[in-house]
Amino acid sequence: MNYYDLLDIIGYLGKSLMENGAETYRVEDSIERVALAYGVHSADVYAASTSIMITIKTPHHEILSRVKRIHVRTTNLDKIERLNRLCRRTCEMTPSLDIVRQSLKAIDLRPNYSFATQIIGYALTASSFTLFFGGDLADSGCALFIGASVKIVSQMLNHLKSNPFFYIIISSSVISILTLIFFRLNWAHHIDLIIIGSIMPLVPGVALTNSVRDLMAGDFVAGQAKMTEAILIATSIAIGIGIPLSMFK
User: What H or E segment, with its residue span, contains residue 224?
Assistant: First the structure.
């Protein structure tokens, strides 16, 4: 058994889980279970929002460590589910490390939804939530266009590799400006309901939920980090919405 390869693979697994929005306890537990399944004496894992530290002790009492830096954080539940399934299968069958590495790469390279599909998703989400919060059909129609516009703007900013909080502020400003335009044209009737519905795709629901779950599990550092990230995103949304409203309403 090449424990250096094992360390690379479990680091790859943990990095993929963390980058796609998995909870901290899930990342640590998955890495530890796979390591133990391949015969290591012990495995100590510490995961945070920006890094993962792994130390394993081989049956020959050799201690190996690895640190993985996390630069990208998003939410992809499809990849998390596939990584979980791979982790369970690996622990049960312990295939060769090359097979596990190939499976991890296949999951990592799995394509996301097409850009057109994402636009439709943003548009339908904004429109549906506007109706849910009490808007009428005119408000929902405006939110449909606003949701699609937000996705287009955010995609352009992502290509520029802009700061995530900056792109949240810009996207929220687009929502506020378009809502005011539709209201001035008398195409929309409720500014507040359109804005509330349109910002729902930007709300950090998963990050907030994971932070509470990590805090309840005793991962205070990781939980506080995710909570801070969720609060900063919410603040960015408020800033982006508030500036155009204060200037032009």
Answer: helix 220-248
